[in-house]
Q: What sequence folds into this?
């Protein structure tokens, strides 16, 4: 089994290498630091593509509560790092990339020198704890490599990874009191009692294993580790900060704090002492496992047997290089390339591999399972990623996307609720956000013939999920054609998203010849009409009695029946039926001005203040790019007589919302969805309705792009007369033949060929 | 693997059946109720020999703290049941038998009728919760069968088990509101925060799985279950009593209390609702696993596939019958037989099987292991059981005892501390009591050629354990020849017990030709001399500077350097060298009066009050039979010129300390050690020094006994002129030849034969 998986991975790599021509080193354009300031919620540390480990510095790990109240700053630390901060707390092994909610931050390690301090200290007084000051001038952040000088200890820390192993290289000054601290209490989103249980076992003077059970966003999670040191530690010790210690009466039998081999309690820390020479390097490798300490040890020994830091770093960077070469672009400016390849980087971090090298993983049912013939994934932020990330993966990572679909099916099979994943976090379900958006990912893969399990079983899983009457208003949705305001605070978002998801089920059913399913769900897909209020011209919460809710503010995102969006934006959420939507809204004569207004109107500050997840820059008029519900909106002009406005808007959004700087993202990257939008849009097309098999034409920002596809095919985007001003598409050729429509099909793309754009500064 | 184990077990059973001649049904003499009153700490419920499940009623589950202070009553509820109590809280699946400390009580189930009550209620007002009144007149307690009528609900509950499955049969009255409550919060020794984490998964309307992680006497323990119902429940629900519920904001997506399939939190309860007809039986089977929910399910399906309660009950009773027939006795009174076979029953409950049917178990290192070719055991209360229980098992359960020794070796291999077990509780080490008493068990097995692993590896494990300088004073013991008063509160107990254990190592080393080990440890075995204070005539705490501690009270057990014993009793703890002890204490002229005084002196009440674990009845003069340190003491007269006093004392102790009534045990049964003492002593001999290969002659209480041995051999104890008054051994024949010594050897016993005692009312 392990051989098989390794072989599959190797084959996938080989294919990639064969496809790409590494004429230039694309990792040089990757800037992981992008989005680490303000609302991007990305992390600057090291990871390989889709890696289980994301080894990155924490500049703070805000506590969920401060003085007994909710601490609003917790939100800033979803990825553990904020660019403005002046101190580093330590380096932990798991991080979300761009989420709007926090968890992880497992197994924080920090090198220190001098008197032992086991508390982390404060940002204002880093010397009060093991925390250290640092400056960005002493910081290097690359794909799979992070380096920083810790000013307080004069230790230089370098980090790199394999899929399941974090590799630390610490260069110490001369000291009799060098320490490495392993803080098992630290974590991102430090909800009180989040740490349920921790265990540490010092196996010998270079090997430590353990685990932590947490009750956080993943409500029922255990993560195991195996940690090895390049140099034996001289001594070690523990501290136990748990409220209560059971059977401490028996502790007299040993000194269980100093050089004792194990400790089990909710709140513990460990330290390891060394004597170091000036410039001496101490290296650490920590492997993770969702299964067991032995699984972690096996991952460690299989993936990172030696101590050659540079080799591991280079191997991971080559993995990135191979991934980045799947789309080779030509662009006028370095900025464009940095934006593009940083987007590629951020898009290919998630979902994350979730299994040991032997294929074992812990399922959502709490049992250990073995991935048989596929790679199992988690971190499915599906409300975000069904839109563009999974369609992108279908093109450049077809094997991985098929395996992700299989992972969703396994989640379904193991789910106590018998549901496909909504938000899969470390093999846990947190039911975050609206809809059931495994469905469009699966339907899109079925439509595109990219599944590696029985498609009918996948369809059945979609249908069962969509018929789950007890789940967030589905019962009323089935009975009345809309989710009633009474049963869900986000009844309109849910109705609109269920309707789209149902249309996806219908498309997959059609493809598979399942007429009964098609009929049932194509009917349900019309349900968007049931929440459209002609009087106000908006989608609007509707009550059980059939009337629309009276209190209603179309600009507010707060308690209006929507989630991360207001009525103005969400009213446009009918990606599967834009023509019917336009008709519903009174035809083009009313629809185009509505769309224009969205981008140009002034959103009063009070509404901005309640818009989640974005900075002021993340918004254009009332168009909120920093959240996802409007990601398809700029492309809707294609269904009117003024598609040039799509071209104009896309080219306006691209440079405005994406900059290759720490503050370059206007909103959460959302595990790659924001980045996937960038990639598609800068290539000149976008999947408005996954499941349709079509990509709507926009306006390419690249000069040329070569997309490497399976079977050594390429799809080339060739842009003539490209310039900042030439944002309008004058005409197009597909494989030399005029393309007189505003979309290309997935078949056209995947068969390979050339799409030639002729650009102009004037629209047609 | 499973086949192999099953085959081994079957072979063991077949052997037993073949050996015994079931002329009478011996289980009829077993009274599990013995010891359930006062200090016996036994349980009245159902279990099979060495079973993983002990399914028994809780009459209370005292909380460790009451109003913020230690609750002294917690101690009474080590086995969950106190005979005086008038109410039953429910039926849980794990119980210690006779321990002096509490834990377990996992997965409490209770049938109720009427309005749903999820709190347990109080003993004074059982109607205030799900608790019910009951009376002993409606109670049946047999080997592997327990029955009681619950007065409040009118439900009759019947319990039986297989090794890993508890089988409940509830006969309900007619009701639309019949419930079965599964209280996952309840446990014995309810230390605050003892419940670390709980999970429940309602798989379908007849199957529930889950687990509980506890931090109790076993500090780091998870127990999994699979529960199945004979009738589908109409509905189910949960209650969550945890202080905090993470992400309850998302609970709006479902009603997660009613008919929801899962819940994970520290403090939860579940209920299952039925409509029942008058007299309708609802049956439940709950399987346990230390490994996983799937392991529990596999145990359930393998061991108890059907719903025939009587068949399971009968099968388990037949297992007991087979075990009991290993020693067939003739006795004058039913009382004698009840005492004997109840002792056999209590002796063969522990240690307990600790592995799934597929051989998997969770080791003391927290990893999953597989028992390869042996049965893995836990519940080693070794400070108690090395004395007589394991020697007994070596005779009548040689295969099991060898597997227990192997289990100890596996524990050693997996132990982070690299130590043999001290007190193994559910695969955890709690280091309870003094000494390292795996050693005498292992040495005794080596001496008796009853090990199924490499004996040299066993010896090495003993040596490594005994050289563990950091463990409770071993460092000072090695350096100075005694554990100093400064490093251990029980320095004298430790010194004496280490010395005995070391002598055992020397015996095993001698047998294996390991001269260096022999020399090292035979020298250490003399260390008992180093804590003997000639001035006071007692073993006495000794300081680092070599002087004896000044403050000293030879009658007190409180902070005098001893554990569960005072200097008067512990001074006699040199079981391996009685002759040297007598010499040390001034020869027979001083030793015999000392021993006489022990049994006849008056112990002032203030000293009794501080003597743990026993009732007033558990003490004879200053001789404390209710605790273990003096269990060999009555036999020490054999090393003087007055062995008749041994005979007299033994025959006095037997009826005084063992009665076939609820209050029949004068102290904790201590997982069978008290019972094993009864069995040996009533047969007429006792293993004063395990590892010696000898049994000291006492005075038999039986008329005749046939011990069935391996290889179809028997050892018969034939007692002539037996009567209550004829307690003195006039002469003995071994296989017809005069036996002119005060011991028999293990070889003589195990080869089979007949030991004939001629009794008299006058001593020689």
A:
């Amino acid at each position: 089994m392990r051989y098989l998986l390794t072989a599959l991975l190797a084959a996938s790599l080989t294919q990639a290498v064969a496809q790409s021509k590494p004429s230039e080193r694309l990792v040089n354009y990757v800037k992981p630091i992008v989005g680490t300031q303000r609302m991007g919620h990305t992390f600057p540390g090291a990871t390989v593509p889709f890696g289980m480990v994301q080894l990155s510095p924490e500049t703070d790990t805000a506590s969920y509560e401060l003085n007994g109240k909710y601490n609003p700053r917790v939100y800033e630390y979803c990825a553990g790092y904020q660019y403005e901060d002046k101190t580093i707390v330590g380096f932990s092994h798991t991080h979300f990339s761009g989420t709007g909610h926090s968890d992880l931050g497992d197994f924080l390690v920090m090198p220190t020198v001098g008197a032992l301090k086991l508390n982390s200290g404060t940002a204002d007084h880093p010397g009060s704890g093991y925390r250290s000051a640092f400056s960005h001038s002493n910081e290097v952040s690359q794909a799979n490599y992070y380096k920083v000088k810790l000013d307080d200890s004069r230790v230089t820390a370098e980090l790199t990874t394999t899929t399941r192993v974090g590799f630390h290289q610490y260069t110490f000054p001369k000291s009799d009191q060098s320490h490495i601290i392993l803080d098992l209490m630290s974590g991102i989103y430090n909800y009180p009692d989040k740490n349920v249980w921790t265990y540490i076992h010092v196996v010998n003077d270079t090997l430590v294993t353990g685990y932590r059970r947490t009750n956080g966003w993943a409500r029922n999670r255990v993560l195991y580790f195996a940690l090895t040191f390049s140099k034996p530690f001289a001594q070690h010790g523990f501290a136990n900060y748990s409220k209560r210690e059971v059977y401490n009466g028996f502790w007299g039998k040993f000194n269980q704090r100093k050089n004792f081999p194990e400790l089990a309690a909710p709140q513990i820390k460990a330290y390891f002492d060394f004597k170091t020479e000036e410039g001496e390097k101490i290296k650490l490798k920590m492997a993770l496992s969702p299964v067991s300490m032995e699984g972690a040890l096996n991952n460690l020994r299989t993936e990172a047997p030696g101590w050659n830091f540079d080799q591991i770093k280079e191997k991971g960077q080559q993995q990135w290089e191979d991934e980045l070469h799947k789309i080779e672009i030509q662009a006028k400016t370095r900025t464009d390339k940095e934006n593009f390849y940083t987007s590629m980087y951020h898009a290919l971090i998630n979902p994350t591999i979730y299994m040991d090298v032997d294929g074992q993983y812990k399922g959502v049912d709490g049992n250990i399972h073995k991935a048989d013939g596929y790679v199992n994934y988690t971190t499915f932020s599906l409300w975000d990623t069904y839109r563009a990330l999974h369609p992108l993966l279908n093109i450049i990572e077809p094997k991985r996307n098929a395996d992700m679909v299989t992972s969703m099916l396994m989640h379904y099979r193991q789910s106590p609720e018998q549901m496909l994943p909504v938000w899969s976090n470390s093999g846990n379900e947190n039911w975050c956000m609206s809809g059931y958006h495994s469905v469009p990912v699966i339907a899109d893969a079925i439509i595109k013939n990219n599944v590696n399990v029985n498609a009918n079983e996948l369809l059945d899983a979609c249908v069962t999920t969509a018929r789950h009457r007890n789940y967030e208003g589905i019962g009323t949705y089935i009975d009345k054609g809309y989710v009633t305001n009474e049963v869900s605070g986000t009844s309109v978002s849910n109705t609109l998203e269920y309707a789209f998801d149902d249309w996806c089920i219908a498309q997959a059913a059609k493809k598979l010849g399942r007429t009964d399913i098609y009929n049932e769900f194509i009917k349900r897909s019309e349900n968007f009409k049931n929440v459209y209020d002609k009087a106000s011209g908006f989608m609007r919460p509707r009550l059980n009695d059939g009337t629309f809710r009276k209190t209603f503010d179309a600009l507010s995102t707060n308690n209006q029946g929507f989630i991360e969006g207001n009525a103005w934006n969400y009213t446009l959420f009918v990606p599967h039926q834009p023509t019917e939507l336009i008709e519903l809204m009174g035809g083009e004569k009313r629809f185009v001005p509505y769309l224009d207004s969205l981008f140009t109107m002034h959103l009063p500050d009070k509404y901005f203040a309640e818009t989640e997840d974005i900075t002021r820059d993340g918004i254009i008029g009332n168009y909120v790019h920093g959240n996802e519900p409007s990601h398809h909106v700029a492309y809707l002009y294609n269904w009117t007589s003024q598609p040039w406005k799509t071209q104009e808007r896309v080219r306006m959004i691209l440079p405005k919302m994406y900059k290759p700087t720490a503050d370059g993202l206007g909103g959460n990257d959302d595990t790659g969805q924001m980045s996937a939008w960038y990639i598609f849009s800068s290539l000149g097309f976008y999947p408005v309705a996954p499941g349709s098999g079509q990509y709507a034409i926009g306006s390419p920002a690249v000069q040329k792009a070569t997309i490497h596809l399976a079977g050594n095919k390429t799809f080339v985007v060739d842009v003539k007369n490209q310039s900042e001003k030439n944002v309008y598409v004058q005409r197009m050729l597909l494989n030399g033949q005029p393309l007189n429509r505003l979309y290309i099909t997935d078949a056209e793309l995947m068969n390979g060929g050339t799409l030639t754009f002729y650009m102009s500064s004037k629209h047609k």
Notes: Residues 491-512 of chain A form the longest helix (22 residues).
